[in-house]
Structures are given as structure tokens and as C-alpha cells.
Amino acid sequence: YKVILLNDDFTPMDFVILILKKFFMKSDGEATQIMLQIHSQGAGLAGVYTFEVAETKVYTVNEFSRRHKHPLKCIMEKE
């Protein structure tokens, strides 16, 4: 399952980079590249996982974003 982050007009770019590093173990460079893709194309692939792992990551990222008062949305799609 693909885990995808969706662009919005309010979540700071630094917060998206933090999410990618903290929950998807991306390097600084990789996280920046994905964040720019999200910003310019409206969505970016954070990773591909089994159903259970993808579901957990989506839930965790959405909760973390909500707790920090950001509208960032994380979704999963069948590959």
C-alpha cells in the first residue's frame, strides 16, 4: 500500500519534512525532495508498506498533525 501525503495551504514545509524524517525515516535530502513534490504536484509518496504498517503510519501521522494543529492529511492507496 502506498502512503501518500497531500498538499494544503497551511501546513509549513518544515513540518512536512519533520513528518517524513520522523515517521518514514527519510534523509534530509529525500524529505526535502518529497516535500517539494507535495508542494508542486499536490501529493507525494512517503513510502510503500504492507496494509497494517501503512494503516498505522496514516493514523499516526494524522494524529501527530492534528495534535500540532496542522491540517496535513496522510492517506493510503492500494498499489
In short:
The chain has 3 helices and 3 strands.
Describe the protein.
This protein is an alpha+beta fold. It contains 3 helices and 3 strands; from the N terminus they run E-H-H-E-H-E. Strands 2-1-3 form a 3-stranded antiparallel beta sheet. Helix 1 crosses helix 2.
Mean pLDDT: 98
Structural class: alpha+beta
Helix count, per DSSP?
3
CA-based shape: globular
Largest sheet: 3 strands, antiparallel
Classify the helix fraction into a percent range. Answer: 40-55%
Spatial separation of the terminal alpha carbons: 5 Å
Q: Low-confidence segments, ≥5 residues, pLDDT <50?
A: none
Provide the gyration radius in Å: 11 Å
Beta strand count: 3
Strand content: 15-25%
Primary descriptors:
single chain; 79 residues; alpha+beta; 3-stranded antiparallel beta sheet; 54% helix; 20% strand; globular
SSE blueprint and pairings:
Elements: E1 2-6, H1 13-24, H2 28-41, E2 43-48, H3 51-67, E3 73-77
Antiparallel strand pairs: 1-2, 1-3
